[in-house]
Write a structure and sequence with these properties.
single chain, alpha+beta, Immunoglobulin-like, three-stranded antiparallel β-sheet, 42% helix, rod-shaped
């Protein structure tokens, strides 16, 4: 004859088995979820690393492109300046080699005036040439003067050379001669241009006269 287990003990063991099954299932689910989360985190981390590497690569490419564009712009500017210089040089030598019907012709080829380091300071470069015959030297003086207004009246002021000669530069050449220097416009003078006059020895009248506007 079997002894019948009381109902409350049956319920107790049923609860124990249910709890045990629930615990085992939860642990399996939790372990599975943790593994999936770890895998997902690892995948996201790898994707983040890949995207970061791509971002760095793109940024470096942009930097290289910007540097290349900057260098290209500089090269283009340099080429344009060299092209202008070559044209000026070609024009200069063509001017010297001009036949001028076999007669020597003295010219002021160019006058360039640029700003100095301080306000009112200027630098200048004048290029004198002789075309045609070159059997004789051109000798004389190049006199420079500022043209403007002072106290509301038109005035002309000689430019003084560093040697102390008032606006007089000695000239002696067969083919060409550059004349370079600097000057300061007096504070009370409103100068508009610089005038260059070439006097050959033995003449009181200028052989050549040419003016250039002062840069603003």
């Amino acid at each position: 004859m079997r002894t019948e287990i009381p109902w409350h003990w049956r319920m107790f063991w049923v609860c124990i088995l249910l709890f045990a099954g629930f615990s085992i299932g939860y642990m399996r689910y939790a372990n599975t979820s943790t593994t999936q989360l770890r895998d997902e985190v690892q995948k996201l981390s790898q994707e983040n690393t890949r995207l970061h590497s791509q971002s760095i690569h793109v940024e470096r490419q942009q930097q290289v492109t910007q540097v290349a564009q900057t260098d290209l712009a500089k090269d283009m500017t340099l080429l344009q300046e060299e092209n202008v210089q070559l044209k000026e040089d070609l024009e200069f030598y063509k001017s010297i080699l001009e036949d001028s019907a076999g007669v020597a012709a003295v010219k002021i080829h160019s006058i360039k005036i640029t700003h100095g380091t301080r306000a009112g300071d200027y630098n200048f470069r004048i290029l004198l040439i002789q075309s045609g015959k070159h059997d004789k030297s051109v000798q004389g003086n190049l006199k420079l003067q500022l043209v403007g207004t002072q106290d509301g009246k038109p005035t002309v002021i000689p430019i003084t050379e560093s040697t102390g000669d008032r606006g007089s530069f000695k000239i002696n050449f067969k083919y060409y001669q550059p004349v370079e220097g600097s000057f300061t416009v007096p504070a009370n003078l409103s100068a508009s241009e610089m005038q260059a006059r070439l006097f050959q020895f033995g003449s009181s009248e200028p052989k050549l006269t040419q003016s250039a506007t002062l840069p603003q």
